[in-house]
Amino acid sequence: MPMSDSSLVEVVCDNHVAHITINRPAARNALSFPTLLRLREILAELASRKDVWAVSITGAEDKAFCAGADLKERRDMNEQQVVEFVKNIRATMSDIANLPQPTLAIINGHAFGGGCELALACDLRIMSSQALIGLTETSLAIIPGAGGCVRLPRLVGVAKAKEMVLLSKRMPASEALECGLVNQVADSGDLTESATAIIEQLLANGPLALQAAKAAIDLGNDLAIDDALEQEAECYSRIIPTRDRLEALAAFAEKRKPRFKGE
Ligand code: COA
Prior knowledge:
By secondary structure, this protein is an alpha/beta fold. The chain folds into 2 domains: 9-203, 2-enoyl-CoA Hydratase, Chain A, domain 1; 207-254, Lyase 2-enoyl-coa Hydratase, Chain  A, domain 2, CATH 1.10.12.10. Helix content is 47%, strand content 16%. The protein has 11 helices and 10 strands. It has helices spanning 33-47, 71-75, 79-97, 114-120, 148-156, 158-166, 173-178, 191-203, 207-220, 225-239, 243-253; strands spanning 9-14, 17-22, 54-59, 64-66, 103-107, 110-112, 124-128, 132-134, 171-172, 184-186. Strands 1-2-3-5-7-10 form a 6-stranded mixed β-sheet, sandwiched between helices. Strands 4-6-8-9 form a 4-stranded mixed β-sheet. Strand 2, helix 1 (33-47) and strand 3 (54-59) form a beta-alpha-beta unit. The radius of gyration is 19 Å and the shape is globular. The two termini are 34 Å apart. The model has no long low-confidence stretch (mean pLDDT 97). The structure holds coenzyme A. Residues 27-28, 30, 63-64, 67-72, 110, 112-114, 136-137, 140 line the site of coenzyme A.
């Protein structure tokens, strides 16, 4: 794999949170092949970091969260290269979805195509009231190929997903909130503060419990109920031997806030 350009995607780890920023504002944070490679490097590293308890993803500047696949790069690709790109962008979104830690998409500007799929791969989404979101690929005579056709209907239902994809809708934040596509909307001036509040709420909870709960929900989502319940039991068994569980019980008895260590 070629070396990646580290400036394309930046990551800052602070107080148990990894803040990822797609950093191509001049191209509206579009996902070029080198951008995907850099993002995948970061995700691979974060997946094994025990000290990282939550991950946020946003776009540089506010004009776009991410304008999707890089359409200029695409023009020079032959069919085989397009196949290779789509394989990589799909795998990138799966890397995000498969991160053990909870993830928050901070949709600070427009999110179209792969930008919307990036948000869909996260666990939680907060969106600027000024932004638009949509899987607009059919307007470009292609289809969402990085999980959009799969993750969107699971989130908002088949009818709404078909409306969005077949009409290539650029949906306002208020409608995205109404149909459950995003969890929260904030004015752009308040977005950082509101996102920080969500992250602080995540950090107030047991980090290993967050990972086990995320796994239980994701693993159970596509299973028959008895199999899903077995998965939940397996995820529960993982947190029984943790010190954080005992710390929470001690803190409750002592009427204080727990001090979790992710152990
Ligand atoms: N790929 C490559 N470059 C992109 C891009 C993309 N997906 N989206 C925007 N850009 C580039 C533009 O070509 C332009 O480059 P230029 O300055 O060299 O002309 C620059 O980013 C700014 O774009 P512009 O459209 O002028 O910015 P805007 O703020 O007015 O609008 C968007 C932003 C995101 C609404 C608009 O650029 C857009 O609709 N982009 C396409 C989104 C899309 O269809 N994505 C689906 C991909 S499958």
